[in-house]
Amino acid sequence: MLESYRQHVAERAALGIPPLPLTAEQTAELCELLKFPPEGEAETLLELLRDRIPPGVDQAAYVKAAFLTAIAKGETTSSLVSPLEAVELLGTMMGGYNVQSLIDLLKVEDAEIAGKAAIA
User: Fold this and answer.
1) Cα separations (Å) of 13 from 18, 73, 111, 114, 116?
2) The domain spanning residue 87 has which CATH number?
3) What total of structural domains would you count in the chain?
4) What share of the chain in percent tops pLDDT 90?
């Protein structure tokens, strides 16, 4: 996935245009990589998660919100994204699939997570 996306970025740069955002399929692959990050790819993976998935209500945002919610709830883990960071990232998604997740996180027993959700 990373090599394919890097090739895409290079092709678009040669045309003088920015890369397209990640698709839902690419986002799902990214989430798997975030669970078990390849050596030396941490910054790239985090940049893709933060900056290359459109906010709102497309399918890639749905995948991102589900992944971050699972981390925030402790249902999955990533050495690169803590539960608190997952809540913060959910808060940057500008509405859509993150809203219900943030509401649900207000009700968790972990006061720190609930507090971050309230801020987000």
Assistant:
1) 6, 38, 45, 41, 37
2) 1.25.40.310
3) 1
4) 95
